């Protein structure tokens, strides 16, 4: 059965918003299930991610024009209205009346005639009054202004305003609301930079080597990178720019013994192996058995031969031998990858940060036990929450006098990272730098 972009989009956002689904998994599943054309695939992707990003903004407007609050509407109706309003407010290539008509047809298919009439009335009312839409005043109530205009939950805005100030919070929100760029990591074991560039250009892609970050390239004008022969041959890996930095900061050497404590899906594991030129030993530990096959598949595709996988809780795992270097890329709130997974805005709660910070500390404590004297450990997360980052490190250091924090200022400078992103010797990247993501990287050294 084939379905169009709007049908795929409404089924996707309904599952994410109402059934706690994940945007990337849900959308990819439906795109394949319904054999969507390339043109409709692009529109469906824009509608799903765009309406999830701007959900608070859309709900604010809908609540001004509908005679029922969004929370009081049934799930299909509110998500159909969100999709329609997103097209009207944010997609200039779709005329307002067309967006309205298409959304009404969607309501007829997925609801009933009464719902379609309601949707039509609300959207037509908004179309007539687009210029009158207002948000809370920035000066009078900055938190509510940012919350609704830039579409973020109140608790996140309050946290960031307290830590970064009003303007920087607006900049962060703006950056997180942009469509993320596609970054790939060249596999140095299989191909040179020039060869990879030529291959991808011949495939119709635009590719740009990213200055100061070895192996990293920005690509555009692509459809599905995983369908390319170069990807299948293991000549590159799709990975975030800041994630690529982690391996370079740990800087493993040929012949060393390395532990990746929380390794799935294997992006950082395989990068470490590439940096070691496939010489040495890497133990890839992972809590979830169902993710081990993904690590193995990535290793096989990339030609990695020095990785051993195992399934253990990183808080309890034991080893008979110590390691030269350890990576603790801990599970986190994911607040730094909101641009890729916008539903994180609406899924995460303040209490999650506390729970995760305790988990992260326990992983760090147990993992550090197996580091050799003089060895180095990198702790990293894809979040900008201080409670999950520098505060976890400080709690660890307060009880582990045999470790000290390595100042990463010099290494950061080598990678072109501005000094404003160095916090207490660690790297706290914000989405306002090279990539619209947030990431934390710190290095510890064992002294005795």
UniProtKB/TrEMBL annotation:
Gene Ontology molecular-function annotations: RNA binding; rRNA methyltransferase activity
Domain SAM-dependent MTase RsmB/NOP-type: 172-447
Substrates-to-products reaction catalysed: cytidine(967) in 16S rRNA + S-adenosyl-L-methionine = 5-methylcytidine(967) in 16S rRNA + S-adenosyl-L-homocysteine + H(+)
EC number: 2.1.1.176
Keyword Membrane: no
Main location: cytoplasm
Keywords attached to this entry: Cytoplasm, Methyltransferase, RNA-binding, rRNA processing, S-adenosyl-L-methionine, Transcription, Transcription antitermination, Transcription regulation, Transferase
Any Gene Ontology biological process: DNA-templated transcription termination
Enzyme active site: 382 (nucleophile)
Entry GO CC: cytoplasm
Amino acids binding S-adenosyl-L-methionine: 262-268, 286, 313, 329
Protein role: Specifically methylates the cytosine at position 967 (m5C967) of 16S rRNA.
NCBIfam families: nop2p, nusB, PRK14902.1, rsmB
Protein name: 16S rRNA (cytosine(967)-C(5))-methyltransferase
Species whose genome carries this gene: Selenihalanaerobacter shriftii
């Amino acid at each position: 059965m084939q379905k169009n972009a709007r049908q795929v989009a409404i089924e996707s956002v309904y599952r994410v918003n109402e059934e706690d689904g994940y945007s990337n998994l849900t959308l990819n599943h439906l795109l394949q299930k319904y054999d969507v054309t390339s043109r409709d695939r692009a529109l469906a992707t824009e509608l799903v991610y765009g309406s999830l990003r701007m959900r608070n903004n859309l709900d604010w407007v809908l609540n001004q024009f509908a005679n029922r609050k969004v929370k009081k509407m049934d799930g299909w109706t509110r998500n159909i209205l969100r999709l329609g309003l997103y097209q009207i407010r944010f997609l200039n290539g779709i005329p307002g009346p067309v967006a309205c008509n298409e959304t009404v047809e969607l309501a007829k298919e997925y609801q009933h005639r009464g719902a379609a009439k309601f949707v039509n009335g609300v959207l037509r009312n908004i179309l007539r009054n687009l210029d009158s839409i207002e948000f809370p005043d920035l000066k009078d109530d900055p938190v509510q202004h940012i919350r609704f205009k830039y579409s973020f939950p109140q608790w996140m805005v309050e946290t960031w305003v307290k830590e970064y100030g009003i303007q920087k919070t607006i900049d962060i929100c703006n950056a997180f609301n942009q469509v993320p760029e596609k970054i790939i990591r060249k596999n140095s074991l299989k191909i040179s930079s020039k060869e990879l560039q030529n291959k991808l250009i011949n495939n119709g892609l635009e590719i740009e080597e990213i200055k100061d970050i070895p192996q990293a390239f920005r690509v555009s004008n692509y459809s599905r990178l995983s369908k390319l022969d170069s990807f299948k041959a293991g000549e590159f890996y799709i990975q975030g720019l800041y994630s690529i930095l982690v391996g370079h900061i740990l800087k493993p050497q040929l012949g060393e013994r390395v532990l990746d404590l929380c390794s799935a899906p294997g992006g950082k594991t395989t990068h470490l192996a590439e940096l070691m030129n496939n010489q040495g030993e890497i133990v890839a530990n992972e809590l979830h058995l169902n993710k081990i096959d993904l690590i193995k598949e990535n290793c096989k595709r990339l030609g990695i031969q020095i990785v051993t996988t195992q399934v253990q809780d990183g808080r309890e795992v034991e080893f008979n031998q110590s390691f030269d270097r350890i990576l603790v890329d801990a599970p986190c709130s994911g607040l730094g990858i909101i641009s890729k997974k916008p539903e994180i805005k609406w899924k995460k709660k303040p209490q999650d940060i506390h729970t995760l910070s305790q988990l992260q500390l326990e992983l760090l404590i147990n993992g550090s036990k197996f580091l050799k004297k003089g060895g180095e450990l990198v702790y990293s997360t894809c979040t900008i929450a201080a409670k999950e980052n520098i505060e976890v490190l400080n709690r660890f250091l307060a009880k582990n006098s045999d470790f000290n924090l390595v100042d990463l200022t010099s290494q950061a400078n080598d990678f072109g990272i501005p000094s404003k992103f160095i916090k207490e010797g660690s790297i706290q990247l914000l989405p306002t730098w090279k990539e619209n993501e947030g990431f934390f990287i710190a290095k510890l050294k064992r002294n005795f």
